[in-house]
Amino acid sequence: MESILKSIKKKKIPINPAVVISNKQDAKGLKIAEKLGVNIEVVESKGFKGNRAEYDKQIISVLTKYGVTPRNGLVCLAGFMRIISPEFVKKYKNRIINIHPALLPSFPGLDAQKQALEYGAKYSGCTVHFVDAGMDTGPVIIQSVVKVKENDTEKSLSKRILKEEHKIYPEAVNLFARKKIKVIGRRTKIS
């Protein structure tokens, strides 16, 4: 999130950030967004256990309040560790993007770096993708490869992957903002 907001502030991405939403009052990203002059909102998730659709209605309400609509908005997930309801995904089809610390479709879900190390992968990396109804299964926008070293730990691999995430997530947002991404079935075409 910070990389995206800083790129926007430096006018590298022609988009206006409307709001940063968190489900936790003490999220580090809220302070960063506030410091960069972006509106912040907290929609606590504690009372919505098991009811994703109701929680997502609250999120959509906040997005709408700030003018982030299914026709003109982009929702960037960054550290938002909740599964989004099918209703939300359908409403914002191809307007929700996420970053994942693996080369999808390999190692979806939690602990991707740990999965890569346990599997013995020689390469890992990160993927920016559109969100669909599945778990890390949406069309891939951009990926970056990171070589897995013999002595890598989950922490050391995560650190190198994070550096790449900070490069490709703003790049993907820029491509979206410039209308350079076309989704054709499961594939994306970058023009």
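Next protein, fold it too.
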Amino acid sequence: MRLISLCLLASVWLTPVAVASELAAAEKLDAVVAVVNSDVITRLELEEKLRSTIKQLKKQGIALPDAQVLEKQLLERMIIDLLQLQYAKETGVRVDEGQLDLSINRIVEQNNLAGVSELRSKLQADGIDYDKFRDEMRNEMLYTRLREREVESKLIISDSEVDNYLANQSKQGGAKSEFHLAHILVVIPEQASADKIKASRARAELAYKQLQGGADFAQVAAGSSDAKDALKGGDLGWRGSDRLPPSFAAALQKLSAGQHTPILQSPNGFHILKLVETRSGSTPVVITQTHARHILIKTSQIVPEAEARKRIMEIKQRIAAGADFAEQAKKYSEDGSAQAGGDLDWLSPGQTVSEFEEAMNKLAVQKIGAVQTQFGWHLIQVLERRDTDVSVQQKRQQARVAIGTFKSDEQYQDWLRQLRDRAFVDYPQ
């Protein structure tokens, strides 16, 4: 009622022309700019995203692309994000409040903040609403879970791929270069016709022509790249040569810092890579391995986070009272290791999800601790630790991780492309 009263009061003081102008502006903001299946994206949402994106680009020192180009690129990313959220809802992928709080507390710890209250203050100082920040965090976690379920869990890496990888590493003398990269990706639509492939190639060539003409790479990436990191200037961070397709690594070996590759093609699109800097990397000779066992209670719609935690704590109390860990694992654990008493054998760094590894590394030998990951609640016991030379098996595991990284990147882009191509998307005039 107060809002209506204020509007009526304002209308008394405004001329009919001014009132009409105000109404027209309001209608413009409420206008639908895209229909995405059963949802819509409004002009207001797009304008808010544009403002925050422009602020982010300026903060990073990235020159702004043409306004219309940036708006078009940003709207497409909003469509892709909305499609992922729709798919997550349809398929039962969710992030509950406890899991979200866990991730936010991790951000607080990593930034050495006093608590969530200090995080709120810092966000407010940057003009960021805390509730909106939580929503964006939740969405990012959903995107990650979708990628894990739809792509990474289905990756198949054959022994022959590992053999070829190790053979190539051997030819290079076992050395591994690391590249700080930025990139531009122009996606090829799924089952694209020759004309659509040609159109994607033309977009990549236009971006390449701009670069050849002296345009800033980050600016061109922000306006032309279909990759999610486009609004960060296409920055990929550091990538080992073993985490790149061989043709990409070979092209980068010919560059000096600041130079970019010609257009490179992969199954999911056209790429232009910029070499920011290079450094030499090497595989550690000695690693610390942990022999651990665990009990897992999975979270689901039937077993919410609070119930899973309650069950794991009850098991922990029974073990503290003298119950055998292995027997409790066989009886209650929902992991494939249950029949082995929860034994995970010797674990190397990077072999488990980060939350699990972090909690495990904090435990002293023979101690027990509980931790939550995306799989549910775990009870972990560290049995022993050792420092060991990197074995042949470990090298093969590292090779699988490296191969999986670049295969995952390609297949995730392919999955997003399929999701987009299956969707109903309309742009009302």
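About the second fold: The CA atoms of residues 289 and 386 lie 5 Å apart.
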